[in-house]
Specification:
The protein has a four-stranded mixed sheet, covered by helices on one side. A two-stranded antiparallel ribbon has the order 1-2. The protein is globular and about 60 Å long. It is an alpha+beta fold. The chain folds into two domains: 85 residues, Arc Repressor Mutant, subunit A (Orthogonal Bundle), CATH 1.10.10.10; 101 residues, no CATH class. It is built from eight helices and six strands, in the order H-H-H-H-E-E-H-H-E-E-H-E-H-E. Helix 2 packs across helix 5 and helix 3 packs across helix 4.
Length: 206
């Protein structure tokens, strides 16, 4: 079993590029996207490359390459001779997954309330930001009995020109806004939007 790191590495540092036969001809999936799949399958004992391809909306060649990378990192392993895969303890750790404990009703209610807050922000002329993208993804997209918190990616567009300039102060302001938008609930994990979030399976909240 691979050694546990002292702390959870960042997505960029968690997965290094693998030198596979197809690595030069196939696009490299973002590390965060691969980790989102590992997290989503926490409650599933085994899964296939076809199920990975469906979840991430990629072709089978890309899924096969991703599996090679994840296996080399020690995050997944073959489930015997079944042709299926399972996540290792190391994979659970690096993906930040938690034991599924929420009901579908509670997750859906939290997402519905967030959708209303997003609408209210965009209708508020005094708000500091306009929300231009909002997507939710995670194991709630499946048919399990219990789920982890829904992952939500939010893209903010500052309304004031000076706020568009990247700075430590602006970064803190955006993070504070996202935290407030998410509300005081353990049912949602709100973070900055990234393009891969829309390219994988998701639910649009706008």
């Amino acid at each position: 079993m691979p050694k546990k790191p002292a702390q959870n590495p960042s997505a960029d540092g968690a997965i290094s590029k693998a030198d596979t036969p197809d690595s030069k001809s196939l696009p490299q999936l973002p590390a965060a996207e691969l980790l989102s799949f590992l997290k989503q399958t926490r409650g599933v004992q085994t899964w296939t490359e076809k199920e990975m391809a469906k979840a991430l909306k990629i072709g089978l060649p890309e899924a096969k390459q991703a599996i090679v990378v994840l296996e080399l990192q020690g995050y997944i392993e073959p489930a015997g001779q079944t042709g299926k895969w399972r996540i290792t303890e190391q994979g659970d750790l690096v993906s930040g997954s938690k034991s599924p404990r929420f009901t579908r009703q509670s997750v859906e209610q939290a997402l519905d309330e967030l959708r209303h807050r997003i609408k209210a922000v965009n209708e508020d002329s005094n708000a500091d930001y306009k929300i231009t993208d909002a997507v939710a993804f995670g194991d709630f997209l499946g048919d399990a009995a219990r789920f982890q918190a829904a992952e939500v990616g939010i893209r903010l567009m500052p309304k004031k020109p000076e706020a568009s300039t990247a700075s430590a102060k602006q970064n803190r302001a955006e993070l504070a806004f996202l935290k407030q938008l998410g509300g005081k609930t353990a049912l949602l994990h709100v973070e900055r939007y990234e393009e891969w979030m829309r390219s994988r399976s998701h639910r649009d909240l706008l």
